[in-house]
Amino acid sequence: MPRARPTSLAALVLATLALTATPAAASPASGPAAPRAAPAATPESRPRPSPEHRLPPYIHGGAWPTSHVQGVTVDVENGFVYWSFTQALVKTDLAGNVVGTVEGLTGHLGDIDLDPRDGRVYGSLEYKAEEAFYIAVFDVEEIDRVGLDAETDGVMTAVHLQEVVDDFTADMDGDGVFDGDTADTADHRYGCSGIDGVSFGPSFGSRHGAPRLMVAYGVYANTGRADNDHQVILEYDTRDWRRLERPLSQADPHRSGPRRPDGTYFARTGNTTYGVQNLEYDAHTGHWMMAVYTGTKAEFPNYSFFMVDGSLRPRRGEITGQPEPERGDLLTLVRRGLRDPETGIRGWEFHGSYGFASLGDGTYYVADGGPVDEGGATLQEGFVHRYRWTGATPAPFERVNAPEER
Fold first, then answer.
1. pLDDT for the residue 208
2. What is the rounded distance in angstroms from the CA atom of residue 233 to the CA atom of residue 18?
3. Coil, strand, or helix at residue 233?
4. pLDDT at 209
């Protein structure tokens, strides 16, 4: 995604006061009203509902002086939702009440996910002008108030990904000049524009292995080249990353990180605008879901949602369209949904690029949002609706309605 402009402190204070004065609620234009207050506790003789059964059909994430909501992840066990608003991380409870925020980011915070082992939130973080790309790691237990600073309050560290830098800055036309953050160039290996989608899950071809962090490239939309038609996914084992994590000084970005990924994989979907916006492993289906901004090449179907078959190991094969013949580890799209007869590409039409979180039970939170006016200031709000998997075409999900909407 392109970097949004840093926000002013005055606007941030305005948003903070608006959110902390009253419980968060949806604007009439954005969706249904915020969920009603939880009913009184059930008698001790009755079993308490599981966390999954307490998940509401709608949650509002507030309105902020940032760019739009870009990612969402849910701690089902403890009852928290984490929201990426590109320059801020927001923590709410399941009723949409703001618990705390991490602010002050001048780069682009993208998709986020919760590590099931350490309980921390990991997110893609880009600084294209500095040629620096990170996984930001948030100690979410320490996010207990609005206005925590990403650099100085000890709640965020970062791990640098040199592999992304190498592909982003690759001089593909051999003229000795890196053309910078632009799609209108032959530079950037595989069309790499940075990173966006992140998710924890087992290695491809396994359903029960230790969680690995998968990181998807952003890919520039460029119809004049043929080497940018794959989604590129890097695999990392993060178990020893604490030795690599460093606090981030945005004025002097560090370069501490793994030397290389544990795997690099390619899924041919056709070129999409900024690659995979949201990547999510879904334990219910055992597959990897990819929500994208649709592509612009007429020779491809330009679906907005794809699934990688998680049961199949990557196979060695040609990475088509490259300037020089190249082979790599290829992923297989699930053989369901829509099928383009010309390319054989499978996918669906579903908007999940603002945030997509699998809840593990065949239901999902899908984010949306947009600009709202708050006292003369334009803020960006975010909210999620709960959906269930159907596998139908053209869209494989249906919304879970509140009882009063049925």
1. 84
2. 39
3. strand
4. 84
394 upstream amide cis, omega within 30 of 0: yes
Distance, in Å, from the CA atom of 246 to the CA atom of 253, rounded to the nearest integer, reads 10
3-state DSSP call for residue 47? coil
Place of tokens 């390319």: 343
| Cα separation, 153 vs 344, whole angstroms | 50
Q: For the CA atoms of the chain, what is the radius of gyration?
A: 21
- Strands (DSSP E) along 43-171, which ranges? 58-64, 71-75, 80-84, 89-93, 98-103, 108-114, 121-127, 132-138, 148-149, 156-160
Residue 200 in tokens: 């924890």
H-run or E-run covering 318: strand 315-318
pLDDT reported for residue 35: 35
For the chain, list residues with pLDDT below 50: 1-49, 406
Please tell me the chain's helix, strand, coil percentages from 3-state DSSP, rounded to the nearest 5: 10, 40, 55
Yes or no: say if 216 and 275 are a contact pair by the CB < 8 Å rule.
yes
CA distance 136 to 37: 34
CA distance 126 to 197: 12
Among candidate residues 129, 138, 75, the one with its CA nearest the CA of residue 104 = 138
The residue type found at 140 is V
Residue found by looking up tokens 């990688």 in the block:
308
